[in-house]
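Researcher: Here's a chain I'd like modeled. Treat it as a single chain, no partners, no ligands.
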Amino acid sequence: MTRLYTQQVDIAYDDRLIVSNLNLSIPDAKITALVGANGSGKSTILKSLARIMKIKGGQVYLDG
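Model: Modeled as a single isolated chain. Structure tokens:
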């Protein structure tokens, strides 16, 4: 079962697009890692999923 997922999420700082068309599915009761180089958008994605930062487009779903 998937509790948290995104569909075509765009994340930007002002007009600078950082993440484009993110489709992410985080399964329930599993350990999930977000891995990438420095400056690749990992923290930005986590801030957006936690609603600390607004997304520019797309949808984030929690428990449907």
